Structure formats: C-alpha cells, structure tokens
Amino acid sequence: MNDTRTPPVETTLTERYIQAVTRSIPEAQRGDVAAELRGLIADQLDARIEEGEPPAAAERAVLTELGDPDKLAAGMIDRPLHLIGPRYYLDWWRLLKLLLWIVPPIAAFGIALGQTLAGAPIGAIIGSTIGGTITVIVHLAFWTALVFFIIERSEAGGTKAEGVTDPWTLDDLPELHASRARFADMVVSLVFLALAAAVLVWDQLFGLVYLDDRWMSFLDPGLWPWWMGGLLIVLAVEAAFQVVLYVNRRWTIGLAAANTVLNLVVAVPAIWLLSQDALLNQDFWLTVVPAPDAEKVYGILSVLTGFGIGAIALWDTIDGFLKARRAGS
Amino acid sequence: MSETDATDADGRAIHLQELRRGTVVLACLRLLAEPGYGYGLLEALQARGFDTDANTLYPLLRRLEKQGHLTSEWNTDEARPRKFYRTSAEGLRLAQALTDDFRSIAVAIDALPEED
After folding, report:
1. Residues in chain B closer than 8 A to A76 (CB atoms)
2. B47 CB within 8 Å of a chain A CB
3. CB of B73 within 8 Å of any CB in chain A?
4. Which is it for strands B70-75 and B82-87: parallel, antiparallel or unpaired?
5. What is the pTM of this model?
6. pLDDT at B87 over 90
7. In this complex, do A36 and B59 lie within 8 Å of one another by their Cβ atoms?
8. Do residue A43 and residue B66 have CB atoms under 8 angstroms apart?
C-alpha cells in the first residue's frame, strides 16, 4: 500500500490508533477493518490538509474525532457495550430478586441449624451464619449476572432467544389487593387459634398420645397451669388481633409492630423453656425412642423445634411488615 | 449560560439525535444506490444536510452490510484501496419502506395541533 498522496508526517499515531481498534477485533475481520480504517483516515486527513491545516495537527484532529478506539471497534463488529442490555435486564432483575428472596433465608436457616446441631458456641453460630449468607448472596449475584452476560452475547444483533424467558402476559400482573386483610383469612385464623387452644388444653389434661397403655402428653405436664394459662391468654389476644386486622381492612406499621410483639411473647418463652428442657414432655420422647439414643434424639429434636419456632415467628413478623409496606404505598 | 440552560441544551441535543438516528440509515441506503466509499459518503451526507460523525457512520455501514442491506467490494484500481458499498435489492426495499413511513410520519406531524 504505497500511497504517494499520504503526506510525509509521522504516521505512528495513525498506526497506533488502527492497532488499538483492531486488537480486540476477531482475527478473521481484523485485516479488513484495518485496511478500511486506514483508507478512511487517509481520506479525512487529505481533506483537512487541502484546507490548509498542518499535517500533524490534522492527524490529531481526525483521530480525536474518531474517539475511543475500543468504542469504535465495538461499533465495527456490533459488540454490546453493556453487561446486560434492555432486552434481558428485566428478566435478569426479576430472577435475581426471586432467588434473593428464596435462597439466602434458607441458607441462613440451614447454616444456623447445622452449626447448632454440631454444638458450636453461639458466637460461632452467628458468625458463620452471617458470613455464609453473605457468601451465598455474592454467589447468586455473580452467577446470574454471568449467565445473562453470556446470553446477551450469544446471539448479538439477533432477536431475543426463544425459550430463554416467557413473554409477558396479562396473567403476570400482580394482584392489586394482595395486601388487603380478607374475611376468609380472619375466619381461618380464628378457627386455627381455637383448634390450637383446644389441642393444647386436651394435651395437658388428658394427653394426646396413647403409649404403653396410658395417655401421655406431648408437651411437658409441668407447663400446667401457669405457662399454659399464659399461652391461652396470648392466643386470645392473637384472636383479637386478627379481628382488629380485619376491621382495619389493611396492614399498618402499627399492626405489624403489634404482630411482632405477639410473636416475641410466644417465641421467646417457648425457646427459653425448650433450653431448660421444660417445653417438650421428656418422658414421652424417652418412651418412644430406644434407650441408648433417646437423650441424643431428644436433644436434636429440641434444637429443631427451637429453630422451627424461631423461623415461623421471624417469617410472620417480616410478612406483617411487608404487607404493611405494600398497603401503605 | 446557566446550569439549567446547559441541561436543557443537552436534553435537546439528545432528542434531536434520537429523531435523526433512523434518517441516516435511510439516507445511506438511498445514496448508496450508486456505489460509494466511507469518506465520500460522509461528505455527501453532510452536504445534503444529514449531520453525521465518522465514528457513527463507519460502524453503521458495517452493520447494514452484516444485515444484508449493503454489499461491499474492494476497489484497488486507484492508488489508495477503498471499500465500496452498494445497496442490495433487500436494502432498496428497506429504503422504500423507510421512505414511505417517513412521509406518512411527516403528514401526521403536519396534522398535529399548531404551536402558538
């Protein structure tokens, strides 16, 4: 390419620019892009020099106008300049939100449960639960982004891949009144509370399980009358709360706070009693499980029950605040 | 110029750019019915009032070629080898469709309520 018309200026700038553009272009297209770009730059240079610009200044001006070489290269081969573009952004974001709602809580619960069963001290349980949950969140964010990054580039310039995500339909619209406290919900809650109270009283007075020719209670008989009486009062308050919630038609921050207090009033004493071996009826479990393992099984069962109570109380508390926030907006 | 003026001017420039984006494609397809090369086309566009930058035109030509609306050929007859582009049959059909659409948009805009 001996070009007689190219002015005798230092062409290293132009060559450096062309190399900067072509280095990120696939081998097959590199020669073509370089040759075309060289011609285009030379044409623009000629035009400026004809207008009387000094060659060196003209070269700088032409290359400056062309701008960032990486950006030009991306344009030349139609490479996206974003991680996840508008085609897939919403799909990615919805999936990530869904996963973040589901996976980290389960992971946290699982890690805490595992550590507790392994007999780790409380500090280690809290530490590894927080650390493990953060690791899980980071992994979720990274891997979903990577998957969509690859999808975005797997068919650049084409249309959205079929089957990667479903097209939006009207059925995907969220419910308008999902946060409204409904009559059916209240009735179900009241029936459930009444049943729970009846079962608890029956368990304490007569026993729920028939074993070794006698009725045994599932919960510790020592809970009667004071602890059990207290629990029945809390259940009555809970029933009243359900009625207030229905009358009020919607969750508020105040109701969510009251719900939290109710959850704490049940969960904290229950877990404390559990830790004192005073919640479950030890006699029952020692009868059910063969002698050598009985103590161990009872211990594991206590931990599982404690985590169950804690998880339900925590979820119900969070759920109340979420509904209050949704109803408020 | 105050800060709000500068922001207004930026917003204006972005809107104008949005409005013109498709018209450059249309102009390229129509102009390249006769074969042309990058810089020659850039000059022709500017002379005809289509304000275009080199760094948007060159990638655009490659994109249109990849989509099959342009064909290209190297011309090595002259001292400086140049890549000549020409609108394909498919590109001409696209140009016709774009032109028709642009005319109907122009009519629709004329029919909008007059400004004061």
Report:
1. 58-59, 62
2. no
3. no
4. antiparallel
5. 0.61
6. yes
7. no
8. no
pLDDT band at A11 (very low <50, low <70, confident <90, very high): low
Give the integer Cα–Cα distance in Å for B37 and B53: 15
What's the gap in Å between the CA of B54 and the closest CA on chain A?
Answer: 6
The verdict on a CB contact (< 8 Å) between A40 and B54 is yes
Domain presence at residue B7: no
Question: In A, which residues are within 8 Å of B68 by CB distance?
Answer: none
Q: Which amino acid is at B69?
A: H
Judge: B63–A78 Cβ closer than 8 Å, yes or no.
yes
Structure confidence at residue B99 as a pLDDT band (50, 70, 90): very high
Find which of B24, B45, B53, B55 to mutate to test the A interface (most A CBs within 10 Å of its CB): B55
* Number of domains within chain B: 1
**Domain encompassing residue B70:** 23-110
Contact between B39 and A40 using a beta-carbon 8 Å cutoff: yes
Which residue blocks in chain A are alpha helix, DSSP H? 12-22, 27-50, 55-66, 69-76, 89-117, 122-154, 183-205, 226-248, 253-275, 282-288, 291-328
Q: Please indicate whether, in this complex, the C-beta atoms of A44 and B39 are within 8 angstroms of each other.
A: yes
Contact B39, A47 (CB under 8 A): yes
pLDDT of residue A57 exceeding 60: yes
- B88 in any annotated domain: yes
Q: Does position A34 have pLDDT exceeding 50, yes or no?
A: yes
pLDDT in tens, A232-289: 899 989 988 888 888 877 888 888 999 999 999 999 999 999 888 888 887 887 777 7
* CATH code of the domain in which B105 resides: 1.10.10.10
Measured CA to CA, the distance from residue A227 to residue A273 in angstroms comes to 10
A122 falls in which pLDDT band (50, 70, 90)?
confident
